[in-house]
Structures are given as structure tokens and as C-alpha cells.
From TrEMBL:
Residues 625-750 form the Glycosyl transferase family domain. GO terms for biological process: starch biosynthetic process. This is Starch synthase, chloroplastic/amyloplastic. GO terms for cellular component: amyloplast; chloroplast. It is found in: Plastid, Chloroplast; Plastid, Amyloplast. Residues 26-63 form a coiled coil. Belongs to the glycosyltransferase 1 family. Bacterial/plant glycogen synthase subfamily. Its EC number is 2.4.1.-. It is an enzyme of class 2 (transferase). Residues 334-572 form the Starch synthase catalytic domain. GO terms for molecular function: alpha-1,4-glucan glucosyltransferase (ADP-glucose donor) activity; alpha-1,4-glucan glucosyltransferase (UDP-glucose donor) activity. Its main location: plastid. Keywords: Amyloplast, Chloroplast, Coiled coil, Glycosyltransferase, Plastid, Starch biosynthesis, Transferase, Transit peptide.
Length: 826
């Protein structure tokens, strides 16, 4: 895929080069038109001269009359002749004037031509923009994204056609100028026939010369314009040909690519196709299950049937698939994640990274993985491939009524994803933001219910339903209290709490909205919160799930005491099913040697790119670049109390005091905190060593990870934390507080109780300024005084394996055990 993208990229660059030549030609055409303008101005001057001549002639006529009065007969006769000649000359001048009016009319046509040219210019600019956009889209294109590519190409073709039409029109107007030559000829002939005095002859001769030179220059200009138009037309034809070739080659390449070894994207598409047919009742649930399993095992017969299906009607494809639908067995699991976030399509924080990272790792291990998400209006639609709505409406219960839901499918990062769009008047996911709405409890209880309804109606044989955080914690009680009673009970429920700070509490009766039985559940051993009379959804998920996990072993320990935010006793009761598994990072997304957001890609063995990115970020943020080795400290975070906001604030001043540079990227949902950091940003706006960027910006986050030398995570508590791992992968040494997942992934460089090969950063325990200072100062010391040791540390950090591989295996183990128990129970 990399190669095919590279070759497409080269071809597109060649094409843009062609366009540049084409634009050059238009510039020449423009210059020709400017010359034509000049000629017209000269014509105006000429007209003025004629006017003067006319005035002079009339004066001469008046003088003649006066003179005649005191003359002899012979003299009078001579004056009479002269007078007659003057009359003739007057006539000639009138004729000349008429001709000039003609020229003026031509001038108007020329203005029209000028207008046409301006139109042509703007079409060209539009075309070039569309082409550049198409080019950048091409780079993002995977071989499966031909639909979007075709659309772009069609737009380009339309633009080309309209440009060609305009060129043709301009050529027609230019042809009209040939008539001008005839007019000038006639003018010449009539001038020749005129009998005038020598003085007048001299003037007329002068005029003739002028007219001739105008005519010659006009002709030259005309010729030049014609040849430029021809060249442009030729370029358009050439461009068309190359574009068609390019499209054909791209199609061929993508087909070849599929045939070599289909990417996950391909199989995800097949599996969504099968699910769509099953939901739309075009195939039976049993056939769908068999076909789904074949797709999951990447059965070549399905691949061949699909590849040879181009141009076939859907029914024929279904029939050719059904012929192969023979039952088999699979060793992998069918896992469905129900979540409120997924990177990069709907990301607020680490949860999004986990859904795509863990999902991809589980898929790579041979499991069938699917994701169900709300269809948010604000999600990054451009990150979804082949997004389409199914021809089915899923009815789901809420507050005593049934509501329709549209079901969309698409692939994200090669994973099959269902997007649920409720047709509920509450417009639950049309809020321009993911969370923070007054009715979040309602919105997500609604979503959890539809997600389960979708699985139930699809008739899939799911092994594991994995829900995440309070937003989808409703799934666990709904599954066992509602759907198991309907016979949908083969799956096992896994619940992961990514942060016990957020538990989803509400008055007990709110639970009834999604169809849960408040009386049954509002009990201390079920869903009633441990410290107040409200309902607690995270507690419900702990009680009702078969597996409960959190995101690091240290955090799993911490939440068994006060870190559990009131749920410690519940966790102790259910400790047998509770485990901490550290998150990984998506090493495809976070890879400095392929990261498209970086100015220069780099690796542990070639660190040049790291300093180039540092220089680029400094330039981009208008920071001082006087000292290349001045250390740059980075911090990317949500600005919430959990993240140690007071220590982040302190770190800004401390870094300045130590002579370093500091870049913060973060925003806060808490207005006071946001305001406070805006104040600090203002305070430092003229300081070229400190930058506070109070926003969410994915592209910039990549640049900061790459550019920074050190990265701070001074959290009060941190369930897992991803930024310290991403920072290390980008060669930025972490300075962190020893808590939760930070304690499981960062080991102090000076701690001799830890094996040297594991030591990878600087840590502190006490959540105060002294604690933080001691760690940051040590990091600065190594950086300045032992650059070689520092470089080795950077290289070591970059080589640590933070991939999902190991953690996904742990999830797979616990899923397998739960699924085996489920099978044993039936
Ligand atoms: P949490 O999930 O508690 O927010 P994590 O460290 O687990 O923290 O994950 C945070 C993720 O969000 C990381 O991928 C980080 O790069 C990203 N992130 C946080 N804030 C921003 C921001 N302002 N702009 C871009 N990415 C951000």
C-alpha cells in the first residue's frame, strides 16, 4: 500500500507540474492581452489627433473665407480649389471617424475577451485547488477508498470540461478580430483615393502609418493569443489522458494489492456486508453466522467471490456467497466493543486510543472484533471509510415508547464499526460535543440499550460484549436483566473502568428510562451507590459483568482503597473477577518513523529528525531558536485536577527558571481552570521560551511529542496514562509522579533498586513542588552535563515495546476463560 501510494503520489506531482506549465502559458496569454490594451490606448491618442486635425481644418476653412474677400479672381479661384480640397479632407476625416467608431466597438469586444480570460483564470485556479485537494486526499487514500477518489476525479473532469468550453468561447471571440483587418484595409483604400493638400497628405500619411503599425501589432497579438489557446487546449487533452491512465493504474494496483494479501480493512468490509444483509433480512441468521465466520477466518473463497463481483447485482453476490455457506469451527472469539469514543473518529482522551488500539491488536490475533459507537454530529467523518446507512431501522425501547434508530456502518482503522443514529426527538448525539450535556445519563443509557438491541436483532453469536466506562456500563445490567430473559445469553460481559473518578450517578428512577427495573436494582448489593441514595452505573457494571478490568495493575491496587472513590468495598466483594491490565499504545498511529504530522520522520538510530522537529516547532510557535540545545519540556493533557494542574502551572515557572523552554497543549472543561491558564498564557505571550496552547489539536500533539526533550505528567492519580508512553516512543524523557499506570511504565533513572535496563525516566512521589522540582532538576542536569548518557536514555526509551501485543494477549486469555465457562454452562 505504501508503494502504491508513493507511485500515485509521484504521478500526481508530475500532473501538478504539468498544470504549472499550463498556468505559465495562461500568464503569457494575459501579457498578450495587456499588450492589446496598450494598442487600444494608442488608438485613443490617434483619435485625439484626428480631432485636433479636424479643428485645424475648420480653422483653415474660416481663414480661407476671410482671405477670399480681399483677393484677385485668379487668387480667388485658387482659394476655391483649396476650399474644395478642404471639404474633401473634411469628408475623409468624417469617414476616418466612422472607422474609428468601428474600432471602438472592437474595443468593447476586447473587453469581453478580457472578461472571458478572467473567468478562465478563476476556473483554472479552482481547478488547481481541486487538484491539490485531490492530491492530498490521494495521500490519505487506502486502496479501498476508491469511491471517494472516483468522486474527486469526476469533479475534476467536470471542471476540465467547463474550462475547455470557456477556452473555445474565447477562441470564437478572437476570430471576430479578423473582421477588423478588413475594416482597416477599407480605410486605407479610401484614404488613398482622397485628393488633399500636401499638408493634409502628410497628416493622413502619418495616420496611415499609425493605423498600419496598430494593425500589425494587433495581428501579432492575435496570433500569440491563438497559439496560447491552442497550447492550453493541448494541455487539457494531455491532462485528461494522464488522469485516465492514473485512474486505471490506481484501480489495477489496488486490485493487485488485495490479491497479494487482503488487509484487515477488506475483511472488515466483507463482514459489515454480511451483517448488513442479515439485518436487512436478505439472508438468514444462520447463514450470516457461517459467512461471518468465513470472513473472520479470511476464507479465500469469499475473497475471490467478492473480487469477481464487480458490476454484479447484489442478489447475485449474495447467492454466490450463500453457495459457500458451510458450517465450520473457529478458534478465535467474536468480540464486540460498545463505547462512547474511538480514535481517531471520536476522541476525547485515552479511552478512544484504547478502543482502536486494543481492537486492532485483538483483530490481528485472529478474533472477529466489532465496535458500536453513537453517530455523533461532531465526529471526524473523514476518518471513516465506506460510511453507509443500512436499509434497516432498529426499534428500541426508551421511556415507555419504541424509537427508531438508523444504523450506519463503516470501517475505522481497519475495524468494522456500527454507528447508531437515534431518531429520538431529544437529538441525543446532535450536540456538537461528546460529553458535558445536562442529559448525558439519558443519552448514554439510550445508546447502551440500542447497542444491545442491535446485537440481539442481528442474531449474531457474540462471545464477548466489552463495555467501557460509565457511558456504556448500562450494558451489563441490561444484558442480564433484560436480554438474557429474551434468550440472548451466550455472550459474556467484560467491563473496563478507565477512571473511577467518573461513575455515572443519577436519581434511582432515571434507571427506568432504558427499561431497567428500578425496584430490582436499587439495592445496596446491586446498583445503589455506596454513600448516597442515588444509582451508580459503574457499580452496576461491576456487579453484573463477568469480567471487570481497569487499566493498570497499580491503579487496580489503588482503587481497592480510597482510589476507588467509594467503590472500594464493591471491588473487594467482586475481587475475583477484577484485574488490572496496562494499556498499550497504537504503535501504528504513534510511530515517529512514519508519522505524517512530523516535519521529518526519525528513529532511535537516526535522531537527526528529532532536532529538525524541535527547530520546526520552535519556528511554528515563534519561540526562540537561539540555542539549539536549550531543553524543551512538553505537556499534553486535559487540564483537570486529576492531572496535577497546580504542578503543571508550577512546571512552567520552574522550567523558565532552569533556562528551558515549555510548551503546554491542553484545554479544560472546568471554566476556572481554563481562565487561569489563559491568564498565564497572556502573561508569557512576549516570552519566546513559553507557549500555552489551550485547545485540542491532534496534529500539534504529534509535533510536541517529537520536538520535546522531556515530557511532564505530574498527575494526582493516573489510571494508566498514555502520554508518558507516547513521549518515550518519540524520544521525550518522561518526568512523572509515581502513581497508577505511571508507576507501571516509568522507572526512575537514578533508582538503584531497579535494573538499569528498565530505568527510563524521572519520577517523584510527593505531589508537591519540591517533589516535582527534584525530578525536573535531575533531568536538566543529565541533559546539560551528560549529553551522551542522555542520548542513550532517549534511544532506550524509543525502543521500549509499548504495543498492545502483550496486553491484548492478557485480554484474550480472560475472554477465553469466560467464553469457555459460557459454553460449559449451555
Ligand atoms: P486521559 O484519558 O485521562 O485524558 P491519557 O493520557 O490516558 O489521559 O490519554 C490522553 C490522550 O489524549 C493522549 O493520546 C493525548 O495525546 C491526547 N490529548 C490530550 N489532550 C490533548 C490535546 N489538547 N490535544 C491533542 N491531544 C490531546
Amino acid at each position: 500500500m505504501m508503494n502504491s501510494n508513493r507511485s500515485l503520489e509521484m504521478k500526481m506531482a508530475y500532473q501538478i507540474f504539468n498544470w504549472k506549465i499550463w498556468l505559465e502559458r495562461y500568464k503569457t496569454l494575459r501579457r498578450a492581452l495587456e499588450r492589446a490594451d496598450k494598442i487600444l490606448k494608442e488608438k485613443e491618442a490617434l483619435q485625439q489627433e484626428i480631432n485636433i486635425l479636424e479643428i485645424k481644418l475648420s480653422e483653415t476653412g474660416a481663414q480661407s473665407e476671410l482671405s477670399t474677400k480681399g483677393m484677385s479672381d485668379a487668387e480667388a479661384l485658387e482659394f476655391d480649389v483649396l476650399k474644395e480640397e478642404n471639404m474633401l479632407l473634411k469628408d475623409d476625416i468624417t469617414f476616418l471617424k466612422a472607422k474609428l467608431i468601428d474600432i471602438t466597438e472592437k474595443e468593447e469586444s476586447l473587453f469581453k475577451l478580457e472578461k472571458e480570460r478572467a473567468l478562465l483564470d478563476s476556473s483554472l485556479r479552482e481547478l488547481e485547488c481541486a487538484f491539490i485537494a485531490a492530491h492530498s486526499d490521494m495521500l490519505k487514500l487506502g486502496p479501498m477508498q476508491h469511491d471517494a477518489w472516483w468522486e474527486k476525479v469526476e469533479n475534476l473532469e467536470e471542471l476540465l470540461e467547463s474550462t475547455a468550453n470557456q477556452v473555445e468561447h474565447a477562441a470564437l471571440i478572437l476570430d471576430g478580430y479578423h473582421a477588423f483587418q478588413d475594416k482597416v484595409d477599407k480605410l486605407e483604400a479610401s484614404l488613398g483615393a482622397t485628393n488633399i493638400s500636401e499638408f493634409c497628405l502628410y497628416l493622413v500619411d502619418l495616420l496611415k502609418k499609425r493605423v498600419k503599425s496598430i494593425e500589425e501589432r494587433f495581428q501579432a497579438c492575435n496570433r500569440e493569443m491563438h497559439s496560447q489557446i491552442e497550447l492550453c487546449e493541448h494541455s487539457i487533452v494531455e491532462f485528461h489522458d494522464t488522469l485516465s491512465k492514473l485512474i486505471k493504474e490506481s484501480e489495477k494496483k489496488s486490485m493487485e494489492h488485495y490479491q497479494e494479501g487482503m488487509p484487515s480493512e477488506f475483511w472488515s468490509r466483507i463482514s459489515l456486508l454480511i451483517d448488513g444483509w442479515s439485518l436487512e433480512k436478505k439472508i438468514s441468521n444462520d447463514d450470516a453466522n457461517i459467512l461471518r465466520e468465513m470472513a473472520w477466518k479470511r476464507d479465500n473463497r469469499l475473497r475471490e467471490a467478492y473480487l469477481s463481483s464487480r458490476g454484479m447485482a447484489e442478489r447475485e453476490l449474495i447467492d454466490s456467497f450463500l453457495k459457500m455457506a458451510l458450517p465450520g469451527t473457529s478458534s478465535g472469539l467474536h468480540i464486540v466493543h460498545i463505547a462512547a469514543e474511538m480514535a481517531p473518529v471520536a476522541k476525547v482522551g485515552g479511552l478512544a486510543d484504547v478502543i482502536s488500539g486494543l481492537g486492532k491488536a485483538l483483530q490481528k490475533k485472529g478474533n472477529l472484533v466489532e465496535i458500536i459507537l453513537p453517530k455523533y454530529d461532531c465526529m471526524q467523518h473523514n476518518q471513516i471509510n465506506n460510511l453507509k446507512v443500512l436499509d434497516v431501522v432498529v426499534q428500541s425501547y426508551f421511556e415507555g415508547n419504541m424509537f427508531a434508530n438508523k444504523i450506519w456502518t463503516g470501517t475505522v482503522e481497519g475495524l468494522p464499526v456500527y454507528f447508531i443514529e437515534p431518531q429520538h426527538p431529544g437529538k441525543f448525539f446532535w450536540r456538537a460535543q461528546y460529553y458535558g450535556e445536562h442529559d448525558d445519563f439519558k443519552r448514554f443509557s439510550y445508546f447502551s440499550r440500542v447497542a444491545l438491541e442491535l446485537l440481539y436483532q442481528s442474531g449474531k453469536k457474540v462471545d464477548i460484549i466489552h463495555c467501557h466506562d460509565w457511558q456504556t456500563a448500562f450494558v451489563a445490567p441490561l444484558y442480564w436483566d433484560v436480554y438474557a430473559n429474551l434468550g440472548f445469553s451466550l455472550a459474556r460481559i467484560c467491563f473496563t473502568c478507565h477512571n473511577f473518578e467518573y461513575q455515572g450517578t443519577a436519581p434511582a428512577q432515571d434507571l427506568a428510562c432504558c427499561g431497567l427495573d428500578v425496584e430490582r436494582l436499587d439495592r445496596p448489593d446491586r446498583m445503589r451507590d455506596n454513600s448516597h441514595g442515588r444509582i451508580n452505573v459503574v457499580k452496576g457494571a461491576i456487579v453484573y459483568s463477568n469480567i471487570v478490568t481497569t487499566v493498570s495493575p497499580t491503579y487496580a491496587q489503588e482503587v481497592r482503597s480510597e482510589g476507588g472513590r467509594g467503590l472500594q468495598d464493591t471491588l473487594k466483594i467482586h475481587s475475583k473477577k477484577f484485574v488490572g491490565i496496562i494499556n498499550g499504545i497504537d504503535t501504528d498511529t504513534w510511530n515517529p518513523s512514519t508519522d505524517r504530522f512530523l516535519k521529518v520522520q526519525y528513529s532511535a538510530n537516526d535522531l537527526y529528525g528529532k532536532s529538525a522537529n524541535k527547530a520546526a516547532l520552535r519556528k511554528q510557535l515563534k519561540m526562540s531558536s537561539a540555542n539549539a540545545s536549550q531543553p524543551l519540556v512538553g505537556c499534553i493533557t486535559r487540564l483537570v485536577p486529576q492531572k496535577g494542574v497546580h504542578l503543571i502551572r508550577h512546571a512552567i515557572y520552574k522550567t523558565a527558571e532552569l533556562g528551558g523552554q515549555f510548551v503546554l497543549l491542553g484545554s479544560s472543561p472546568v471554566p476556572n481552570i481554563q481562565r487561569e491558564f489563559e491568564g498565564i498564557a497572556d502573561q508569557f505571550q512576549n516570552n519566546s521560551n513559553i507557549r500555552l496552547l489551550l485547545k485540542y489539536d491532534d496534529a500539534l500533539s504529534h509535533m510536541i511529542f517529537a520536538a520535546s526533550d522531556m515530557f511532564i505528567v505530574p498527575s494526582m492519580f493516573e489510571p494508566c496514562g498514555l502520554t508518558q508512553m507516547i513521549a518515550m516512543r518519540y524520544g521525550s524523557v518522561p518526568v512523572v509522579r509515581r502513581t497508577g499506570g505511571l508507576n507501571d511504565s516509568v522507572f526512575d533513572f537514578d533508582d538503584e533498586t531497579i535494573p538499569m535496563e528498565l530505568r527510563n525516566g524521572f519520577t517523584f512521589l510527593k505531589a508537591d513542588e519540591q517533589g516535582f522540582d527534584s525530578a525536573l532538576e535531575r533531568a536538566f542536569n543529565y541533559y546539560h552535563r551528560k549529553p551522551e548518557v542522555w542520548k542513550q536514555l532517549v534511544q532506550k526509551d524509543m525502543k521500549i515495546d509499548f504495543s498492545w501485543d502483550t496486553s491484548a494477549s492478557q485480554y484474550e486469555d480472560i475472554y477465553q476463560r469466560a467464553a469457555a465457562q459460557a459454553r460449559a454452562a449451555t
